[in-house]
Amino acid sequence: MRWVWCRAVLHRGWWLVTSVYLVVDARLTASELVLIGVAQAVAALVFEVPAGVVADTLSRKWSLVVSHVLMGIAMVATALVSDFPALMATQMLWGVSWTFASGADVAWISDELDDPARVPVVLIRAEQAQLIGTVVGLAGVGGLAWLTERSTAMVLAGAAMLLLGLYVVVGFREQRFVPVSRRRWSAAWVILVRGSRLVRDSRVLLAVFAATFLVTGVADAFGRLYPLRLVVLAPAVDPVVWFTGLGVLMCLVGAVVLRVVQPRISGPHTARRGYAVACGVAAAGSGCLALAYEATSASLAVLLAAGALPLTRSFGTIWVNSQTVGAVRATVHSLLAQAEYAGKIVCGLAVAVIADLAGAVPALMVCGALLVIAIIIVQRSTW
Q1: Which segments within the chain are labelled E, that is strand?
Q2: C-alpha closest to that of 341 among 94, 9, 63, 73
Q3: d(CA 348, CA 344)
Q4: At the topology level of CATH, where does 2-172+187-379 sit?
Q5: Which residues span the membrane (predicted)?
Q6: What pLDDT digit, counting tens, does each position of 289-326 carry?
Q7: 8 A C-beta contact, residue 306 and residue 380
Q8: Residue 8 has what pLDDT?
Q9: 359's torsion region: left (phi>0), alpha (psi -120 to 50) or beta?
Q10: In this structure, what DSSP letter does residue 262 have?
């Protein structure tokens, strides 16, 4: 919980400042903002499954350490460049860094607990810790950027992320996981095949993967478009202060929702229903932001959409985790992450083209439509 909280403080606070940096300092266009996300997803797509197999074969702990090293370097490097190609390169490294963490952390805690009934509760508590950490990060890193410079705050957050990786090295123990000691390449291939077959043969997993493909593509595109939309509607307002306030409210509401859901999260239908409701709220927020004509209504729309979209990932992770087994758990979560990255690429490219040809408003309407399709897919699945 402490590690999740600390990582959220750093990477969420860093991204708040970076989202403003990309718009205000680097002056990227709407299509460039979305294309950076697409390039990041391409890099992550290539590395995601190999990273998951490494976690299932060699070590979940050291996968997280590698993630911290790459992430810290990417965070610092982003603050040192301002042209589009260089920013794309640093964001691609940022995407690769997440491949070594996604799935490995969930698989690790699932192994250490060794109690399927407790895992969903712990994952929900971890999401709550992440949301509270996000509040601290938005206020802390955002406040630092306001007092100094955006690039300074970004560099310091990246350096702290490297130190957090050192905390994983000295503070965490990997007790229950047994690495493959012989014929590792052969064992890795077997793990990949078993995980892929598990997904292929499960209607529930296929539905979650398909919905995740759409939802994550929308979430990434929306996260890059809404700062631009808000700045256009209210150019005189300090964006760092404005976005910090919005981010804090989003996280507090999300933490309350997870607190309400926590006692029932182990129920057979809670994750599916929560996923569908979150998609519906996000779709309404995206449509309202597209139609907003002043800053107050636009801010409320962002609170709805950007507050609900992260909850879909929480529910999706718990849903998938309940459908897999320990030997291939990290690999299945990595396959889920591949669906996320593929969604960022395909849906992100589509939204980028629309934003470039028609502007941010039609692009946001398309985001809402894709979320409605995801709701239909989830509702048609069975537990």
Answers
A1: none
A2: 94
A3: 5
A4: Growth Hormone; Chain: A; (1.20.1250)
A5: 33-55, 62-81, 129-147, 153-172, 204-222, 242-261, 273-293, 299-320, 332-354, 360-378
A6: 989 888 889 889 988 888 888 888 888 888 887 777 66
A7: no
A8: 92
A9: left
A10: G
